[in-house]
């Protein structure tokens, strides 16, 4: 067996040198880098060490991971601080809920049909009826989170939407600002607050289908003529002809205030000031006996006088609301359109409210026209120094039949106020003081003066 002589080299250039003692030739050692190079040069290839199977490597990784995890668990059991850190990392505490502004969870449901029903998250609190006669409204305080609101109000469109507390970007309920809400009845809340929200339920005339709107118009047209009582005109009383001329009755006549309802302009919102025909009431109303649960509409119709004889002969088919005189030319034509209130219900079809405590249609007042005509007379009589104007209508005595305007003179020597009486389109001097102040004004008959005194309560 040959002897091996191992010679050490400096550490920075470590080499192994092996010599055969019999032949004196160098023997390549596997650890010698230069020997490996020599072997490669001689065509000999080195074989890398075999790799472990994939299954074995995975089992080794699982074993190492288990050991590490076991070590962590043991440390966590011993050290509470480490245990708390691990728990916090795995289950971070929820972020604190933002503080709600006052009444941010207060939700008003407005402009719903009085007969509608609603549910919140599948629960049905109560119907919206009995809450507000003119624009049914109610209010809710919601818990935090997202809520689903469903409203059924035939024949108006149903509503399904979501609303959150606090408000979220994905909410779908139609919200209107509190400033857009009329001062009305909101349960124990007088009105929406700055941080509250108002959900528009959309029960308005312009939201009806064309068929339902046309059916309601037909119902209203059948009711309006019957809503105004006949006014008896005796000989000597005044009325207007179709051309606006002031006439004096020679025989007994009858007069009716007509309201001609035009077809509404569907492009004009029914809750706007420009609305005509059937409009949603914008001002608050006080509910009375038998009125709760009805939808209150404002009827905007063109007014005119119909004069007929006792035998039915038509004397004037559409007499204007004021005389055709140059003095009254400044009265705008829009003044012919009168506003009155109508109460309706829905029970598979439109029904007009009826009962012993109220009329189906409130008679429109003509006092605005009477006041305008009186103001024009004062403008043409600068010598009159008046300190006040008082207008009283005949509702309850001669409902919708006339108005009395009294003018208090600043002259201390005046014996009493001037009184003018608007009746069937004509403005009349109802006392001697008014006749002296306005000599061109027709003088009221004895019957008309008695009606004026009855309105004034004396």
Element layout with pairings:
Elements: E1 18-19, E2 26-27, H1 33-41, H2 54-78, H3 80-90, E3 106-112, E4 117-120, E5 136-141, E6 145-152, E7 159-165, E8 175-176, E9 197-200, H4 210-223, E10 231-233, E11 238-240, E12 246-248, E13 253-260, E14 277-280, E15 295-309, E16 314-319, E17 337-346, E18 350-352, H5 367-379, E19 386-393, E20 402-409, E21 418-423, E22 426-429, H6 432-437, H7 446-456
Parallel strand pairs: 3-9
Antiparallel strand pairs: 1-2, 3-5, 4-6, 6-7, 8-9, 10-13, 11-12, 13-15, 14-15, 15-16, 15-17, 17-18, 19-20, 20-21, 21-22
What is shown here, in short?
By secondary structure, the chain is an alpha+beta fold.
* Order of SSEs: EEHHHEEEEEEEHEEEEEEEEEHEEEEHH
Query: Judging from the principal axes of the Cα atoms, what is the shape?
Result: elongated
Low-confidence stretches: 1-14, 127-136, 179-190, 283-290
Q: For the residues shown, what is the average pLDDT?
A: 78
Distance from N terminus to C terminus (CA atoms, Å) equals 156 Å
Sheet with the most strands, sense and barrel status:
7 strands, antiparallel
Number of helices: 7
Classify the secondary structure makeup into a structural class.
alpha+beta
**Radius of gyration, in angstroms, nearest whole number:** 47 Å
Q: Count the strands? A: 22
β-sheet strand percentage = 25-35%
Approximate helicity band: 10-25%
Structure explained in plain terms:
There is one protein chain. The chain has about 450 residues and is an alpha+beta fold. Residues about 1-15, about 125-135, about 180-190 and about 285-290 have low confidence and may be disordered. It has seven helices and 22 strands. It has helices spanning about 35-40, 55-80, 80-90, 210-225, 365-380, 430-435, 445-455; strands spanning about 20, 25, 105-110, 115-120, 135-140, 145-150, 160-165, 175, 195-200, 230-235, 240, 245-250, 255-260, 275-280, 295-310, 315-320, 335-345, 350, 385-395, 400-410, 420-425, 425-430. The chain starts with 17 loop residues before the first strand and ends with a helix. The strands form six sheets. Strands 10, 13, 14, 15, 16, 17 and 18 form a seven-stranded antiparallel beta sheet that branches. A four-stranded mixed beta sheet has the order 5-3-9-8, with no helix packed on it. Strand 11 (about 240) and strand 12 (about 245-250) form a beta hairpin.
């Amino acid at each position: 067996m040959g002897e091996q002589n191992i010679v050490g080299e400096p550490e920075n250039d470590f080499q192994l040198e092996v010599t055969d003692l019999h032949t004196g030739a160098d023997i390549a050692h596997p650890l010698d880098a230069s020997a490996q190079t020599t072997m490669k040069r001689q065509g000999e290839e080195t074989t890398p060490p075999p790799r472990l199977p994939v299954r074995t490597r995975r089992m080794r990784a699982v074993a190492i991971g288990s050991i590490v995890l076991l070590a962590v668990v043991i440390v966590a059991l011993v050290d509470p601080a480490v245990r708390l850190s691990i728990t916090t990392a795995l289950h971070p505490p929820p972020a604190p809920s933002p503080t709600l502004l006052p009444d941010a969870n207060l939700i008003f449901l407005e402009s719903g049909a009085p007969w509608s029903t609603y549910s919140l998250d599948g629960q049905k609190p109560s119907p919206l009826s009995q809450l507000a006669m003119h624009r049914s409204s109610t209010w809710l305080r919601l818990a935090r989170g997202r809520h689903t609101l469903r409203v059924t109000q035939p024949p108006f469109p149903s509503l399904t939407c979501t609303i959150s507390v606090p408000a979220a970007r994905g909410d779908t309920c139609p919200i209107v600002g509190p400033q857009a809400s009329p001062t009305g009845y909101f349960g124990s809340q007088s009105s929406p607050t700055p941080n509250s929200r108002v959900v528009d339920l959309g029960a308005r005339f312009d939201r009806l289908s064309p068929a339902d709107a046309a059916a309601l118009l037909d119902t209203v047209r059948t009711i309006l003529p019957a809503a105004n009582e006949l006014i008896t005109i005796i000989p000597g009383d005044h009325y207007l002809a179709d051309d606006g001329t002031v006439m004096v009755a020679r025989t007994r006549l009858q007069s009716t205030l007509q309201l001609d309802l035009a077809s509404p302009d569907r492009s004009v919102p029914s809750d706007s000031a420009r609305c005509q025909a059937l409009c949603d009431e914008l001002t608050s109303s006080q509910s009375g006996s038998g009125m709760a649960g009805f939808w209150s509409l404002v009827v905007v119709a063109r007014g005119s006088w119909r004069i007929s004889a006792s035998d039915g002969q038509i004397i004037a088919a559409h007499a204007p609301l004021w005389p055709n005189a140059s003095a009254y030319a400044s009265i705008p034509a829009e003044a012919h359109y009168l506003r009155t209130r109508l109460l309706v219900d829905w029970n598979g079809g439109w029904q007009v409210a009826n009962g012993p405590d109220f009329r189906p249609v409130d008679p429109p007042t003509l006092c605005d026209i009477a006041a305008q005509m009186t103001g024009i007379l004062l403008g043409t009589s600068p010598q009159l120094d008046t300190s006040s104007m008082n207008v009283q209508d005949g509702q309850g005595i001669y409902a919708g039949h006339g108005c009395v305007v009294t003018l208090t003179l600043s002259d201390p020597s005046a014996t009493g106020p001037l009184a003018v009486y608007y009746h069937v389109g004509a403005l009349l001097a109802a006392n001697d003081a008014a006749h002296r102040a306005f000599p061109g004004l027709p003088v009221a008959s004895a019957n008309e003066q008695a009606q004026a005194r009855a309105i004034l309560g004396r």
